[in-house]
Fold:
Amino acid sequence: MKVLVTGASSLIGTGVARVLADRGDAVVCFQRRFVDALAGVDGVEQQLGDIRDNEAVNTAAAGCDAIIHLAARVGIVGSEEDFVSVNVGGTRNVLTAAKHHHIGRVVHVSSPSVAHGGAAIIGAGADEPTTGRSRAWYAESKALAEIEALAASSPTMGVVAVRPHLVWGPGDTQLVGRIVERSRQGRLALVGGGRALVDATYIDNAVDALIAAVDSTAPGAKCAGRAYVIANGEPRPVRDLVAGICAAAGVPFEPRDVPLRTACAVGSILERVWPRLPQRVRNDDDEPPLTRFVAEQLGTAHWFDPAPAALDLGWTPAVSVDDGLARLADSY
Structure:
């Protein structure tokens, strides 16, 4: 196939592009900046542009058989318009381009946060997205984007939504990078003592899941029009996972315990005042260390049933959490 991968500068996007190229697919990567790790990779072409630019997306999609749409605004800082313009508007551009070029397979990369309303999630599948949240603009915009993406699935264009949960591994600057840096600075804290059970996804497993999804998502396929949560299927306390990451990186594991109620209150305050604080107070961090939404996610159980993805996409995680931690330690 010839596959368009949007957001290929991300850890997952770069991995997906490499695997597709290694197996013989032609790959068009569309992102805002050149990816050095993909330079010179046979079968990979890079086109630079903004996912909000309909014409640029349409040009990148020309001649493609499938699209894996990863491009998104992530994080917790920004206005509603910042997130909606990229996550919803960008998805609309991808769907428009897919229809224009008669592309039959679209994999929309979503997030489990689209269905997280603050309560514990225990062994759930891909529940319906929750909308109407204020301030949690990432989750809100991703929920709106997923709804539009799945609604576009048709007999001539199969669309599937894949929600990778807490992706981590070597090279990860989000989960792993922030845990390690805060440990080094003596700022590591665990909401509720880190006792909540969570599941996570090792990077190689997330990449494999997206490849399985694009292979399965032909028009009329069982998975078309459906969403799937991707995770290792090994729920464990947040404390254990964070301790394992710290050990792999060789940094101290000396977290402070913050009660959930306190964390939610502090998070609500920080998300409002953080942008106005001087840089010396923020330690040059663009994002606050905590928001109410993040506190709820870290302080409540959220783990999922990976069986639907195994049945419909033919995907199972190949790398366990412990093996992933060993690989992370090797990388350090």
About this structure: The chain has a mean pLDDT of 91. The longest helix spans residues 137-151.
